[in-house]
Amino acid sequence: MDIDARGPRFGAAVTTAVLAVALSLQNTWVLSWQTVAFALGAAAGVQRSPYGWAFRTAVRPRLGPPKEFEAPEPPRFAQAVGLVFAGLGLVGFTVGPQWLGLAATGAALAAAFLNAAFGYCLGCELFLLLRRATVQAGQME
Fold this sequence. Notes:
The chain is mostly helical. The protein is 77% helix and 3% strand. The longest helix has 22 residues, at 73-94.
């Protein structure tokens, strides 16, 4: 079942704000929260993540009906990619090296910002690229 395309973009906007705070303060608690949000989005789908719940209960009722839908698999994969980068950020900030925390959190922030501001989901594009490569490899056999 396809999902309202505005939901993941809303989640990306919230994620951008959370990661900006985590990065600027180098706060592991804030980054831990975002890591949990990514984990829930990757495991259960973006519509069941904390930001998906907020969109569904507080934002979507105030908007008109959705005009654009998307498959849930690419955003879910993007959450898994975000989880990896947030996890690396936590490792860098807690046990080092510090540059790893800064770089990984910064990369996650950049990706979230691209989605929030421009509707360009890097993780979704990576999902589609990997899917295309898998299909092509299967056709070669």
